[in-house]
Amino acid sequence: MGPLRHSLAALMAIGLSPLAAAALLVRPRLRHGLGERLGRIDWSAEESIWVHASSVGEAKAATRLLRALGEAGHRVRASASTLPGREIFRRDLPSLDSSLAPLDHPWCVEAAIGRGRPRLSVLIETELWPSWIAACARHAVPVVVASGRLSDRSFPRYRKLRRLMGPTLRRVAAVGARTDLDADRFVELGVPEARVRVTGDLKLDPPSDQPALAIDLIRALSDAPVVIGGSTHPGEERALLDGMDSAEKAGHGFILVLAPREIGRAHEIVRLCQERLRRVHRRSELEGRHLVPGEVLVLDTLGELAALYATASISFVGGTLAPVGGHNLVEPVHAGCPVLFGPRVENVRKVVEILEVGGAGKRVANSAALAAEIVAGFDDLEACRVRGEIGRETLESHRGSVMQTRTMIEEVLDRCGPSTS
To answer: Bigger pLDDT: 311 or 129?
Structure first.
């Protein structure tokens, strides 16, 4: 790093220090893994492929790519931006080196890349970090974007910064975009067209096996039908409780499982259920209970939602009534469960198209329409089961993104040769 870069990095560090200190005081969780965030990452093997994902959803998709790369004989390691994302790697791939990612500051990424000397860096979806990419370029580490997407919300922001982002994106060795639209957007922002191809969405590839559900959850949910609200945001839990009220008025009882996108909101959701006079339990305090129709289970643990979907008759995925853009719609369908979602699906547009064709996914306009669909589903549960099976078969036909992405990475490795850092 030259004198000018050092000076700019020092100014950044000085300017951000008060904000960082305040953040550590206000949010003590940020202290966990602070050394890793500053670039002090332990590497058991150099010349590995470093796969980075943001949080839980991206980490789950990345595990499939990591397995495929490992099976092909490549040394791999992983990082995540969040503690829950890192926990996914440690739970699903316990023998894999994993850590929190360094902060996108020149000193932090320089420390991490200098210590580990990766052979190649893979960024999942939208993790386009300028300091990271620049540090990789200085160490002759090629950067690949996998399952790349630029959402309707993020693309205009990147486009406004095109002059600043252009040099960063021109350093990217290859982009495997999720869709043709994403590919066009990467090219418009400055990635050379010859380096961009459509490899599909890693999340669409079915998992190699369905995750197992804990015995106590099987027992807890065995006495009644189940409806799951996954990755919910404020307002969406209330809509699902309204749906529960409507179903009961129509003569249908079920257990409602609420899995908030942010686990820290569990206490807020418990309070909401109590205000609605619902008997509510936290997953972490289940203690062998058998739930009955009309009760609510709040999932305040990580890593169990995918397996829970297999127990459900109907599911709803959040961030779709709330103005977020949608979360992982394919996870319930992989488990054979039909899925409902609201109108805000900008981030998952291609998945919605796939699911709506076969009827495995249904869009609802608002909370009243969600309640009506829940009632309709319980009026004909066999039709729900068939929709779930059709959805699972439909996703099978889209298998292949992991292998296409692995091929792209290996082509970059062959073209660039071993790292010279």
So the answer is: 311
